[in-house]
Design goal:
Layout: E1 5-11, H1 22-32, E2 37-43, H2 63-72, E3 75-83, E4 86-87, H3 89-98, E5 117-124, H4 129-142, E6 152-156, H5 173-195
Parallel strand pairs: 1-2, 1-3, 3-5, 5-6
Antiparallel strand pairs: 3-4
Helix pairs in contact: 1-5
Length: about 200
């Protein structure tokens, strides 16, 4: 039997725990839609992730510990709220810290993130999910991750409603469908890439 896949969700909410988070709710729904996958959730703002583009910014930087979980995972879920039509500042910091992966390679010249799958989860009370997922996909593929077909799930409410995803009575059918599709495609692709690695280029 093949080794079980591992998934890590980085929740980029601006709210520290234990505050409820719509981004975390959607991230957990993505993970729940991945049967037989070991999963972990990290709310990034709960940790002292320093600004910078190095693997370790020193002085108590929490990124190295989070990065070790990324390296150990087969699937990365990046979940962010929408503010002013943009991803959160916490999400931007995650992308900036991932920049260091460009210089991390194995003996064959492959990036250590190569072969890992990444999907996006976006929530908000205004438009912006396509814009944000486009930024996430470009950043994640630049830093070695592979995005599956339909690798995003999102929920955007009408601005006039001023509702949070976490306060809905039930998950909207469209979002549920996107969540299940993104999860299934991520698991499928992760298994394929685990069985057949990308070719060495070094």
């Amino acid at each position: 039997m093949a080794d079980p896949l591992r998934a890590l969700a980085l929740v980029c909410s601006l709210k520290p725990s234990p505050a409820e988070s719509s981004s975390e709710l959607l991230a957990r729904q993505v993970l729940e839609a991945m049967p037989d996958v070991d999963s972990t959730v990290v709310r990034v703002v709960d940790h002292d992730v320093r600004p910078g583009v190095e693997l370790d910014m020193g002085d108590g930087d929490a990124w190295p510990q989070i990065r070790s979980q990324i390296v150990a995972a087969d699937i990365l879920v990046v979940a962010t709220p929408t503010w002013l039509g943009q991803h959160s500042s916490v999400c931007q910091r995650v992308l900036e810290r991932l920049d260091a992966e460009l210089s991390e390679t194995d003996d064959s010249g492959r990036m250590l993130t190569l072969g890992k799958v990444a999907v996006a989860a976006v929530v908000g009370n205004e438009d912006g999910a396509h814009h944000i997922s486009g930024i996430l996909f470009q950043s994640l593929t630049d830093t070695g991750f592979t995005v599956p077909a339909q690798g995003v799930t999102y929920w955007n409410d009408d601005l006039s409603q001023a509702r949070d995803y976490k306060d809905l009575d039930s998950t909207p059918e469209a979002t549920d469908g996107m969540t299940r599709t993104a999860a299934a495609n991520a698991v499928h692709l992760a298994r394929l890439l685990k069985a057949a690695r990308y070719p060495a280029t070094g």
